[in-house]
UniProtKB/TrEMBL annotation:
<dbReference type="InterPro" id="IPR050765">
    <property type="entry name" value="Riboflavin_Biosynth_HTPR"/>
</dbReference>
<keyword id="KW-0686">Riboflavin biosynthesis</keyword>
<dbReference type="InterPro" id="IPR016192">
    <property type="entry name" value="APOBEC/CMP_deaminase_Zn-bd"/>
</dbReference>
<comment type="pathway">
    <text>Cofactor biosynthesis; riboflavin biosynthesis; 5-amino-6-(D-ribitylamino)uracil from GTP: step 2/4.</text>
</comment>
<keyword id="KW-0511">Multifunctional enzyme</keyword>
<dbReference type="InterPro" id="IPR002125">
    <property type="entry name" value="CMP_dCMP_dom"/>
</dbReference>
<dbReference type="InterPro" id="IPR002734">
    <property type="entry name" value="RibDG_C"/>
</dbReference>
<comment type="pathway">
    <text>Cofactor biosynthesis; riboflavin biosynthesis; 5-amino-6-(D-ribitylamino)uracil from GTP: step 3/4.</text>
</comment>
<keyword id="KW-0560">Oxidoreductase</keyword>
<keyword id="KW-0521">NADP</keyword>
<protein>
    <recommendedName>
        <fullName>Riboflavin biosynthesis protein RibD</fullName>
        <ecNumber>3.5.4.26</ecNumber>
        <ecNumber>1.1.1.193</ecNumber>
    </recommendedName>
</protein>
<dbReference type="InterPro" id="IPR011549">
    <property type="entry name" value="RibD_C"/>
</dbReference>
<comment type="similarity">
    <text>In the C-terminal section; belongs to the HTP reductase family.</text>
</comment>
<keyword id="KW-0378">Hydrolase</keyword>
<keyword id="KW-0862">Zinc</keyword>
<comment type="similarity">
    <text>In the N-terminal section; belongs to the cytidine and deoxycytidylate deaminase family.</text>
</comment>
<comment type="function">
    <text>Converts 2,5-diamino-6-(ribosylamino)-4(3h)-pyrimidinone 5'-phosphate into 5-amino-6-(ribosylamino)-2,4(1h,3h)-pyrimidinedione 5'-phosphate.</text>
</comment>
Length: 370
C-alpha cells in the first residue's frame, strides 16, 4: 500500500511535527507534507494550541498546487470545530486526491470521523504509515485521550550505588552540568514539572526551564522569549510550602495540590486544587486524573525517594529516566525509591531499557513500563 516515496514523505512530516515539541501542549505535535508528482509543494506543522493545524499551513504553502495532490499527515485530520475549523474540510476544499495518515486520532471527538469524511468526499485515505514513530510524538496526548490519565516520566539522579540524597537530605549535585542541562530539555517538553513539599523545603528548587541554557541549535530555531514555561505542580498535603520558596518568584504558573486548601496562604497567583488523602499523602491517581482534566497530558516528576516509591508502587510511572553518576554515596544515603515488603521476584516493578547514553560524566538510562 505504501511506496518508498510515501515513507520518505511521512518521515519528513514526522520531522516537521517535532518542531512543535516545546510549544504545542496541550495539543498534539502534528506535521504535514503536500506533494505533486515527485515534488513537495507545501509543508507545515502545528506550532501552538489555538493556532492553525499542520494541514492548514501546508495547504496555504501549496496554494493552487494542492489540487490533485497527496497530503501526508502524522495524525488523522480533525473533523470537528475546536478552536480552528475541521482540517478534513480544508483538504476536501483544496481538492487533494489522496491523504496518507500515520495514525487514527485517539481524540473521541475525531476517532475515525476525519478519515470517513475524506472518504465520503471521494478521497483515497491510507492509514498506518510509520504509526509507531507518529505515536512517539505524542505519548501524553494519546494516553489522556485513551485513559484520562497523563503520561508520567519519573526522573531520578542517582549514584552508582543507587542513592538519591545523603542521609541529611543533601543532593545538589549528584550529576554534572551536562546531565542537568539534559533535564532542562525534558522539562521543556512536558506540560508540567511535578515535585513535592519535601523537595521544595529541602532544596528550594526552581523547577523552571532556563531557555538561555539550551543548546544553540534549539535557541536558533525559536524565539526563546515566546516559549512557554511548563506548569510547576507541587504536592503539599498539609500546605507546608511558604511563599518565600524560590519557585514562586520565577516566571510561569504554579499549581499546588493539597488536602487542606483552607490552610494555603500563597496569594491569588497560585492555583490550588484539592485532592483527598490516601495513605501518608495524597491520592496520587486522583491527583494525576485532576491534572489531566486541566489539560496537562505529560508530567515530568522530580522528587525524592518517597514520592518515587509511591508512584512506582501504585504503577503510575510510564517511563523512568535515571541519570547515574560515577559516585558512591554509601549505605546511609537515601534510596532510589522507598517501598518494600516484596517477597517474590514477580512483584518487582520491571522496565524495558529503551535507551542508554553517556551525558558528560554520567549515564542516562531510559526505561519504559513493561
Ligand atoms: N536525586 C534526585 O533526582 C532528587 C530529585 C528531587 C529531590 N531529591 C531529594 O529528595 C529529598 C526529598 O526526598 P523525600 O523522599 O524526603 O521526599 P519527596 O519524595 O520529594 O516527597 C515526599 C513528600 O511528598 C508528599 N506526598 C504527597 N502525597 C504523597 C504520596 N501519595 N506518596 C508520597 N509522598 C507524597 C508528602 O509530603 P506532604 O505530606 O507534605 O504532602 C511526602 O512527604 C530531598 O532532599 C531532595 O534533595 C532528589
Amino acid at each position: 500500500m505504501f511506496s518508498q516515496f510515501d515513507t520518505d514523505m511521512m518521515s519528513r512530516a514526522i520531522d516537521l511535527a517535532k518542531r512543535g515539541v516545546y510549544t504545542t501542549a496541550p495539543n498534539p505535535n502534528v506535521g504535514c507534507v503536500i506533494t505533486q508528482g515527485d515534488d513537495i509543494v507545501g509543508e507545515g506543522f502545528h506550532f501552538r494550541a489555538g493556532e492553525p493545524h499542520a494541514e492548514v499551513f501546508a495547504l496555504r504553502a501549496a496554494g493552487e498546487k494542492a489540487n490533485g495532490a497527496i497530503a501526508y499527515v502524522t495524525l488523522e485530520p480533525c473533523s470537528h470545530f475546536g478552536r480552528t475549523p475541521p482540517c478534513a474540510d480544508a483538504l476536501i476544499a483544496a481538492n487533494v486526491s489522496r491523504v496518507v495518515c500515520a495514525m487514527v486520532d485517539p481524540n473521541p471527538n475525531v476517532a475515525g470521523r476525519g478519515i470517513q469524511r475524506l472518504r465520503d468526499a471521494g478521497i483515497q485515505v491510507d492509514v498506518g504509515l510509520l504509526q509507531p514513530q507518529a505515536e512517539a510524538l505524542n505519548p501524553g496526548f494519546i494516553k489522556v485521550m485513551k485513559t484520562g490519565m497523563p503520561y508520567v516520566q519519573l526522573k531520578l539522579a542517582a549514584s552508582l550505588d543507587g542513592r538519591t540524597a545523603l542521609a541529611n537530605g543533601k543532593s545538589q549535585w549528584i550529576t554534572g552540568p551536562e546531565a542537568r542541562a539534559d533535564v532542562q530539555v525534558f522539562r521543556a517538553k512536558a506540560g508540567a514539572v511535578l515535585s513535592t513539599s519535601q523537595t521544595v523545603l529541602d532544596d528550594n528548587p526552581s523547577l523552571n526551564v532556563r531557555w538561555e541554557q539550551f543548546p544553540l541549535d534549539v535557541q536558533a530555531d525559536y524565539d526563546i522569549k515566546t516559549l512557554r514555561q511548563p506548569i510547576r505542580v507541587i504536592l503539599d498535603t498539609d500546605a507546608k510550602v511558604k511563599i518565600d520558596a524560590q519557585l514562586f518568584s520565577l516566571d510561569g504558573e504554579v499549581l499546588l495540590v493539597t488536602a487542606t486548601p483552607q490552610a494555603v496562604s500563597l496569594g491569588d497567583d497560585v492555583e490550588v486544587i484539592q485532592v483527598n488523602r490516601q495513605g501518608n499523602g495524597l491520592d496520587l491517581s486522583a491527583t494525576l486524573r485532576a491534572l489531566a482534566s486541566k489539560g496537562i497530558n505529560h508530567i515530568w516528576v522530580e522528587a525524592g525517594a518517597t514520592l518515587a516509591g509511591s508512584l512506582l508502587n501504585a504503577d503510575l510511572v510510564d517511563e523512568l529516566i535515571v541519570y547515574q553518576a560515577p559516585k558512591l554515596m554509601g549505605q546511609d544515603a537515601r534510596a532510589l525509591a522507598n517501598f518494600g515488603g516484596l517477597t517474590a521476584m514477580e512483584q518487582v516493578p520491571s522496565f524495558d531499557l529503551t535507551d542508554v547514553c553517556q551525558i558528560g560524566n554520567d549515564v542516562r538510562l531510559r526505561m519504559k513500563k513493561q
